[in-house]
Amino acid sequence: MASLSTLPKPISESSFFLPKLSNSISISRVKIRPLTPSNVFKNSNQTQFSSGSPTFDVPLLSCSEVIERLRTSRGSHKPKQHYLAMYSSVFSGITTDTAAMVIPMDDHMVHRGHGVFDTAAIMDGLIPIAAFHFDRFLRSATMAKIQIPFDRESIRQILIRTVSVSQCRKGSLRYWLSAGPGDFQLSPSGCHQATLYAIVIQDQSPPDHSGIRVVTSSIPIKTPQFSVMKSVNYLPNTLSKMEAEENDAYAAIWLDGDGFVAEGPNMNVAFVTKEKELLMPCFDKILSGCTAKRVLVLAAKSVREGKLRGIRVDNVSVEEGKRANEMMLIGSGVLVRSVVQWDEEIIGNGRESPVTQALLNLLLEDMKSGPPTVRVPVPY
């Protein structure tokens, strides 16, 4: 993977675009050669460009040829994730053909990032914590000023039906609301209707609950207005994850504007203090993690059993976090996972920790056999 230092320089630093200028600035106009029959050739199935350099062929494809090439491209590599079914309100249906799992280029979510999404796990034919994810999804759409195209129950039934068609019993359901296709303008006023997309993903990777290392992110955290909304604007999150991987770490931890511990790139953070309190950062400036909030509820059992003395949601300084007995990441992807090192500091004894493991076990049990209010059965 390329490091940040190897990424292309901005235009302002690239001599390819801007020649070095002397004290006497003089920029001559670039002469553009017009397209004429002598330097452009076309036939029924390809376009050729020739201007004294080797010919470059670009085939002109029919719709069926495009689909076939997409199918071939999909089959040319072995992905860790398999896409079992996709719903799109653009074609008002579900497909199980991965070559057809596409969205329009002029969808405002694609070229302007005007969309929101959420994810729910699928376990043993159940969608755990689905209601919490769904509520956050609709709340994010309202914050993003996206007109929801269906009523709540219709969306819910579409999502359940998509999982049912997929026959997936262990994986994840990811779904989006977008301002919709229409044009490439900045304003969504040309988008005739918001769109709903959903995809069922089967992950073939074996579960890994071993201890991990994290670093402090140097990528600026999103402002609270955008942090609390689960939008598709994940470039800061992606750069943060890349920064972690470049430093042989699993994730990078964000700090908020006041220097307190915030969150990871796509998971929440929690600690077990030396006083045996479960401590989690406040949610007012970060994404309200559905899995994290469920863990806060389940942790009450650990308090009753004496594994914890209390539960607290509060500001967490870096110093307090690094001297904690345990540190963990919590999210729908990682569930609950021990952090054994943060930057150069060893957390606790540097091994997977007992309270973290207990919380993971409580969450796994809850996902399988918790109350109906937190699980949706899928009718296969």
From TrEMBL:
Keywords: Pyridoxal phosphate. It comes from the Eukaryota. The keyword Metal-binding does not apply. Signal peptide: none annotated. Coiled coil: none annotated. The keyword DNA repair does not apply. It comes from Anisodus tanguticus. Belongs to the class-IV pyridoxal-phosphate-dependent aminotransferase family. One of its GO terms (biological process) is carboxylic acid biosynthetic process. GO terms for molecular function: catalytic activity. Gene3D superfamilies: 3.30.470.10, D-amino Acid Aminotransferase, subunit A, domain 2. Its cofactor is pyridoxal 5'-phosphate. This is Uncharacterized protein.
